[in-house]
Design brief:
Elements (H helix, E strand, L loop, with lengths): L4 E5 L4 H12 L3 E6 L8 E4 L6 H16 L4 E6 L13 H26 E10 L12 H17 L11 E7 L2 E2 L1 H6 L9 E2 H12 L10 E7 L2 E6 L20
Parallel strand pairs: 1-2, 1-4, 2-3, 4-5, 5-6, 6-9, 7-8
Antiparallel strand pairs: 9-10
Amino acid sequence: MSVGKIVIYGGRGSLGSACVNYFRATKWWVGNVDVRANPKADFNITISPDASWTQQEEHVMTLLNTGLRTHKVEAIVCVAGGWVGGNVSQNFSRKADLMWRQSVISSSIAAVAASKYLCSGGLLALVGATPALKATPNMMGYGMAKAAVHQLTKSLGAENSGLPEQAAAVAILPLVIDTPMNRRMLPKADHTRWTPMSFVIELIDKWIHGQERPASGSLMALVTKDKNTQVLRVTENLEKSEVLIGPITETTH
C-alpha cells in the first residue's frame, strides 16, 4: 500500500528520474508525465513535444482522470525543462519557442492538473531560475521562460488562483542543479556552486510534509557555495536580495 500519491512532470530527465526513484523507494505511488515513459513509475503519460499547448493539456488531463479516477495526490512536482543560449539576433524565436514549451507549458499544465487533482493542503512545486531574476542577454529565451514560471508561481499563490484550499505553489530557483547532463555541458565550471539533486528532492519532500514550507506563491532561491546550500526567499526588493550577490552567468536546469 502506498503512503501517498505524487505526480512528477518531467519524470524521465535526470532530476525527474531521481525524484521517481526517491518517492518509489519510500513507498509512494508515482505518476510520470514526460515525452518518454519511466518504467519505474506506477503510471505513465507520454506527451508529444510537437503537440500544441491545448492538445498537451487535454491529453494529460484525460489520462490523469484514467489513472487517478476519484483519488487526489499530495504533490505535483514539475521538473521538466531545458536550457539554450543566445541573444535576440541568434535564432531567437526558435530558441524561445523551445524554452516556452519545455518550461512554461509544462509548468502551466502541472498547475491545471493541481487545480483538479491536488488534495487540500497539497504542494505544487515548480522550477524557476536565479538568473531570470536579472537580465539574461546571453540566454534570452531561457530567461524569459523562467521569468514566466516565476510570475505563474506568484499568481498561483494569490487569492482566487484556482488551487485547492490550503494548497501551496512554490518555485525553487537554482543557479545550476548538479545533473550528469550539466556536468557534460560544463565540465570546467565551479561545481561547488551547483546544488545537488538530492538536496532538491529532500527539500521538496520536507515541504510536502509541511516542514518549513514557504507561503504559497514564494520564490525560493537555492544558493550553493562550497557545496553548502542555503534556501533564501526572493524578496520584491531585488537590489537588496541576498540571491543576487555576485555574478550569475552559468546555465541552470
